[in-house]
Design brief:
Structural class: mainly beta
Shape: globular
Distance between the termini: 40 Å
Radius of gyration: 14 Å
Oligomer: single chain
Helix content: under 10%
Number of helices: 0
Order of helices and strands: EEEEEEEEEEE
């Protein structure tokens, strides 16, 4: 059973940066796709970045050029570097892992990111 633990959220001023971490309990090579979603109060959860186990990445248009998803295979960890943060980035950020062939769909517990002056 795959478990995910997020960390790195917090309060930051507009224009600041944060790095989120998602530690997996298994090798990330065994997971088809990992990514980050976020959900603001009263809003739908939205995908913001994904990384395939071969390394290909994808981003929501609104975060391109500001956010970068990466991984450290040795640490079984996926990161989300967030730069030039804006108030509209405020949300709970969730890490997820998907391996449809193995019927694995797992979410982390979420970490709060608040961007405010």
């Amino acid at each position: 059973q795959v478990q995910l633990v997020e960390s790195g959220g917090g309060l930051v001023q507009p224009g600041g940066s944060l790095r989120l971490s998602c530690a997996a309990s298994v090798s990330i090579f065994n997971i088809y796709k990992m990514g980050w979603h976020r959900q603001a109060p009263g809003k739908e959860r939205e995908m913001i970045a994904g990384i395939h186990n071969r390394g290909a990445t994808s981003y929501r248009d609104s975060v391109k050029g500001r956010f970068t998803i990466s991984r450290d295979v040795g640490k079984n960890t996926v990161y989300l570097q967030m730069n030039n943060l804006k108030p509209e980035d405020t949300a709970v950020y969730y890490c997820n892992a998907e391996s449809p062939q193995d019927n694995i769909y797992v979410w982390g517990q979420g970490t709060q990111v608040t961007v405010s002056s």
